[in-house]
Design a protein that fits this description.
Elements: H1 2-31, H2 35-39, H3 44-56, H4 59-87, H5 93-125, H6 130-143, H7 145-155, H8 159-185, H9 188-193, H10 197-207, H11 211-221, H12 223-237, H13 240-256, H14 262-270, H15 276-290, H16 295-318, H17 322-327, H18 330-354
Length: about 350
């Protein structure tokens, strides 16, 4: 009986926000069929996050946010991860081989340089708290809000710092998500950089903040760029666990001073969450490369994947509060914006040099 009550309560708390996400996903998929919107390069994922940003910042939605919050959190975390895992059915081991060592090298250089630059600017220039600085660095260097949420327990950061970091990273990541396709369609990106479509895919996957933003930007360019960008991004996501280990080793001496012992190290490392959805993503690619998946099944899962990702995008946009960015002051926003410029311009330079 108690189990039944708990299940009923869990369904009730999730239902409204989850239903809202799915309804808006259906609306964005319907709108995406418009020839006019297609000519502007607006796919269902882009439309979903724009709908979320608009509706989420209306006064009525803000007052009702608590009612939808649990379901929206589920959408932008669990549905997003499920959608990314299903995206693996569209890729093969050959695609990973095409990205190869150059893509991994771009990822590594961008991750290390972004973390270092964020720490330098945050502490020396903007004089921000260490935890907030490292949260913004983790989100910018690895995989956006997911990296911030994973790093928060390792850094033992305040909830308000976590919210500020997520808001800044999601805001600038969304700007990149919208700008990259515009640069590509105007032919500025290819003509100025000299990169091939595969190179643009690596650049996109190595510099955009969120996994879903990479999916949106890549699909708004070409299917080839989308596939390369997603593989590059997932290789970057799989660097999350080692990056968090490094953060744990860096922060622990600061917290424990001279009292750090082996027990503290183990407890700190136990806080690190492995990005299992990235592991499952790779596993799906391997399985579908080795096994024969019927086209009808592949098509069905592709449609489900689009619904899940659109729902996650709406939830992500809805949860981004423009007011929270203003409330945090200019320094965290300036830091996130500076790193955003580095990802776009520095990432392009590094991609050119390596590729």
């Amino acid at each position: 009986m108690f189990l039944e009550l708990d299940m009923r309560k869990m369904i009730q708390t999730h239902a409204s926000g989850l239903l809202l996400s799915l309804l808006m996903a259906a609306l964005s998929l319907t709108l995406a069929q418009s020839e006019q919107l297609q000519s502007w390069g607006l796919g269902s994922l882009t439309l979903a996050i724009l709908l979320g940003l608009i509706l989420g910042n209306l006064p009525l939605a803000t007052s009702r946010a608590q009612h939808w919050n649990t379901g929206l959190q589920f959408s932008k975390q669990q549905l997003l991860r499920a959608g990314i895992v299903l995206y693996g059915l569209r890729l093969s081991l050959r695609d990973i081989g095409n990205v190869g060592l150059p893509g991994l090298l771009v990822d590594l250089v961008m991750l290390i340089s972004t973390l270092w630059l964020t720490a330098f600017l945050g502490r020396r220039v903007f004089r921000l708290p260490r935890e907030l600085t490292l949260l913004i660095g983790a989100g910018s260097a690895i995989c956006g809000a997911a990296a911030i949420l994973a790093a928060a327990p390792v850094l033992r950061s305040k909830e308000e710092d976590t919210g500020i970091a997520i808001s800044g990273v999601v805001f600038f990541g969304t700007c990149s998500m919208l700008l990259y396709p515009l640069f590509f369609q105007s032919e500025l990106l290819m003509s100025w950089s000299g990169l091939t479509p595969a190179g643009i895919g690596i650049y996109t996957g190595a510099t955009l903040h969120e996994v879903a933003q990479v999916v949106v930007a890549g699909k708004a360019m070409t299917p080839q760029i989308a596939d390369v960008a997603i593989v590059t991004k997932m290789m970057r996501v799989m660097l999350l666990a080692p990056a968090l280990c490094v953060l744990a080793l860096l922060v622990s001496p600061v917290r424990q001073a001279a009292k750090a012992d082996h027990t503290n190290w183990r407890l700190r490392l136990a806080d690190i969450s492995i990005p299992w959805f990235a592991v499952l993503f790779v596993l799906v690619i391997v399985l579908q490369s080795l096994l024969s998946v019927p086209p009808a099944v592949r098509q069905l899962f592709a449609q489900l994947d689009q619904i899940l990702l659109s729902a996650a995008m709406f939830a992500l946009g809805f949860s981004t509060r423009l007011a929270s960015l203003r409330k945090a002051g200019w320094k965290p926003l300036l830091l996130a914006g500076s790193i955003w410029c580095w990802l776009m311009l520095g990432g392009l330079l590094i991609s050119q040099l390596i590729l």
